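Chain entry —
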Amino acid sequence: MSRLKQVGLVLSGVCLGILVSLHYAANANKDSVTTGQLPVEEVRNLADVFNAVKQFYVEPVEDKKLINDAITGMVAGLDPHSTYLDEDAYKDLQVSIKGEFGGLGIEVSMEDGLVKVVSPIEDTPAFRAGVKSGDLIFKIDETSVKGLTISEAVKLMRGAPKTSVVLNIFRKGESRPVVVKLVREIIKVRSVKSKMIEPGLGYVRITQFQEQTTADLARHLEQLNKESPLKGLVLDLRNNPGGLIDAAVGVSAAFLPQKSLVVYSEGRTPDAKRKYLAIPDDYSRDAGDQLKSLPKNFKSIPMVVILNGGSASASEIVAGALQDYKRAKLLGIRSFGKGSVQSIIPIVPGKSGVKITVAKYFTPNGRSIQAKGIDPDYVVDETANGSSEPFMREADLTRHLSNPNEQSAPAASAPVAAPKAIKARQVDDDGNEMPRFELAGKGDLQYEQAINLLKGLPVAVRKVVDQSAPGAGASEP
């Protein structure tokens, strides 16, 4: 009887996992895969493993934990962006989408059992402490992250405001682990920031794509235009890890003709095959048009978009659309290369679910960004000596999805090489560590060259470039 109970629990877990994977296609036409029988032999093997753990493992393990771990492993084994969301992770995700949550301010993924930093969020404890894209966190306080799920690691990093946490980090270019002590705080992410560069030239930075990003962008653009009618605009998407696809469509719609195709997705089910247009229905979650009061001159003023290896997902949707329509010039270095779409599928409504990849997205001209990224028209490093950030990219992640447009996607490090590598930490002549330059501030070469491009001045592009990249070798507009 005990054996039957155990098998029943395992079957419940397996069926739950299979139903999760099919939920997205519940109302679609069923193909041969979705109508197939449960794999009896594999289910039997899973039941045998479950039974072995229950009988022989050194310590007793609750049935619920074993089933949850089985579901977690099943979903995590698909690709780097699919994950099972338990009650805490599900709640955290809903809060982060709204742009306010507690913690350190780091976008992370799991790589070879370690927590890998995708991008620190600007104006957060992690950003101010110098945590970098590509950092590998191997210990949180006294707990090794080896063997933890991404949700468990995130739980350790989050906590009550004003409490501290110590991260032990492996960093490229450092011979010893980097130890960073951080104080948690409520993370209120301002997704849009702006300033007037000089009369007629505006600067807008988008740090994340959230529910209010389209409306916030419209307000910032209107304010800049009131201050001085704009004749040129720099849109900064550096270190922007992405976010909501409708926000990306809204940002694109601010600069593209109405009804333009912004992005489309392709997946196995009819629901996953969709076109997103520059229309309110595709970017406004409420009944109103968030861009209705935006002056029409933003559809035509000259634009430069700045990218780097931390520009991912929704950032790449915007950059790809503006590049395809020749609406803006892209400047910087190749983007991250995340060209897949994830949907949140509830399991227990309001309590748990799965974030699962359901489609790949394509730019208006049919380009897939997956594991490839967006190549800028003008390749410009962070400094005259190269780029200091050891950016990881989609192509570096284990189990990353392939690019449907290519036999094999290019590696993140090839073939664009800086003429001279620089250390992860720069020091002055006295050996003192130099402060990291502020984006859109003094010493930001990409920002300076974006302004030159808007003004029609020569642009200091990288001397050694990928000859296949758009704009390779260009020195002026």
